[in-house]
Amino acid sequence: MLYTPEHAPRLLTDEQEEQVHGYAMRILEEIGLDVLHHDARKLLEEAGQKVDGDRVYFDRDFVMEQVAKAPHTFMLHARNPDNSVEVGGGTPLWMGVGGPPFLSDLDEGRRGGTLEGHDTIIKLTQASSPLNCVQTGACEPVKMDVHTRHLDMEYSTLRWSDLPYTTYGTSGPKARDGIEMARITHGGELGDRTALMGVVNSVSPLIWDFRMVDAMVAWAESNQATIVTPFLLGGATAAVSVAGGLAQQVAEALSGVAIVQTVRTGAPCLYGSFFQATDMRTGAPALGTPESIFGVFAGAQLARRYGLPFRGGGGLCSSNAVDAQASAESSFMLWATMLAGTDVVLHAAGWLEGGLTASLEKFALDVELLEQLQIHQRGIGFSEEEFAFDALKEVGPGGLWLAAEHTMNHFKEWQYISPLFITQDFTTWSAAGGEEAAARANRRWKQLLESYEDPGIDPDVDAELIAFMERRKSEPPPPDDD
Fold first, then answer.
1. Phi (first) and psi of residue 225, to 5 degrees
2. pLDDT averaged over the chain?
């Protein structure tokens, strides 16, 4: 492979990397973080950390000792063992969008997310060859009960895909529901197997709230993977400067890893980066900007420094439409994501409107970009047949390669033919209706959906999942889940 973590470009010099680390350690020790979870604070205090009310002052040596306990790689077990993957082992995980409350396509326009829409995105992910991981919460079914719809989304992920996945888990109770559904899906106790990844975001700047810490505790106790991702918007939740934001990111991410390792030594953790600018004209996140690219490259480099798998990047954009802005912003982001040697990529396909909308046309366009980027990642072949010396002798000076047997035998193998982008001349294109990319993308996602093959599920497992969901829906929501 051309682009692997060990060969990824280094944005920061050694001196700059040390500066970021040094300021992060000062943040941990001199400013500290508020940890709004009594049991976690108690564990940290018992481990020798200074606690003053909600504030925890993290000793740098303690943090680095805890971070060193997290595995450099770990196996993520899918319900289909053939799809299991070693995270951090050189195979990037790419997945569709997650979290939007809205869904859009050219047929029905922008509307509130639905469970049917969630099912569609999970099926599209399963059917799209560049995507090898699924994200629960592909779009929020907004009219369903907020206390229980995570169960339906988790079921959608488990029923319609057999790929590895990220769970929903925006609180401890929801995380524990996801763990129980993973246990059922895997036919019994998980033991030490890691069957899911969950994402936690610090409340930047410098707060770990109860829900996020409780989810971390749940995943750590069961040896599931925690993607520790500070949600940093330069000028809003972090310093407007990239350097200041990176130092804060390190402090927040490593403090989260330290909490996980204090709960259970060796529990899988990922260093997550979501570092974006804030548009000072509107206060909205500005995605796909130079600052976003710096965040991807620097985040990946820092993750490698700390020996943790890296989550970052994705097909992110701020655009409200599937247009040139969306294409440019997402192309920049995906290119940087691939070059940085990212291990886990959330939101690689379908993200629109700053993450508020899951767009099916955008999903198809992003998959097209990923197909081409993954060809770039594989690089060039140098076999004797690819040098084509004997074929060139046959073609000879002035010959036509288009008619050569060598071309006919190998063009499908060695030349990328896009299912979505076209190369017709203007006259031919106009005569065919002048269809633009968004319209072709509309047809493409429908083709992908038609190609979806149901992986099936064991009837007994299915029945147990449904029974668990029905029981949980009949119970009152936990106090911390209101």
1. -85, 135
2. 96
Residue ranges per domain, the chain?
Answer: 67-378, 384-414
Residue holding tokens 């909308």?
A: 357
Helix (H) or strand (E) holding 121: helix 115-127
What is the model's pLDDT at position 8?
80
Q: What is the 3-state secondary structure (H, E, C) of 139-167?
A: CCCCCCCCCCHHHHHHHHHHHHCCCCEEC
Q: In sequence order, what are the residues at sequence separation of 6 or more whose Cβ sits closer than 8 angstroms to the Cβ of residue 151?
A: 177, 181, 468, 469, 472, 473
The CA distance from 226 to 396, in Å, is: 59
Segment 3-14, tens digit of pLDDT:
566 678 899 999
pLDDT in tens, 172-219: 999 999 999 999 999 888 988 999 999 999 999 999 999 999 999 999
Strand partners, 187: none
Q: Tell me the C-alpha distance between 213 and 200, whole Å.
A: 8
Given phi > 0 = left and psi -120 to 50 = alpha, else beta, which region is 95? beta
113 residue type, one letter: G
In the three-class reduction of DSSP (H, G, I as helix; E, B as strand; rest coil), residue 50 is classed as strand
Amino acid letter, 307: G
What does pTM read for this prediction?
0.95
Calculate the alpha carbon distances from 210 to 102, 175, 184, 344, 453 in Å. Answer: 27, 13, 27, 25, 40
Give phi and psi for 193, each to the nearest 5.
-70, 135
What is the rounded CA–CA span in Å between residue 136 and residue 421?
29
Long-range contacts of 15-22 (CB under 8 A, 24+ apart): 16/243, 17/301, 17/302, 17/305, 19/243, 20/243, 20/246, 20/247, 20/250, 20/298, 20/302, 21/250, 21/302, 21/305
Give the separation between CA 39 and CA 187, rounded to whole angstroms. 31
DSSP letters spanning 87-103? ETTT--EEEE----SEE
Fold of 67-378: TIM Barrel (3.20.20)
- Cα angle: 143, vertex 134, 271; to 5 degrees: 105
Distance of CA 212 to the CA centre of its chain: 18
Handedness of CA 185, 186, 191, 195 (dihedral sign): negative
Determine if residue 314 is left, alpha or beta; phi over 0 gives left, psi from -120 to 50 gives alpha, anything else beta.
left
Neighbours of 10 (CB within 10 A): 13
Amino acid (1-letter code) at residue 239: A
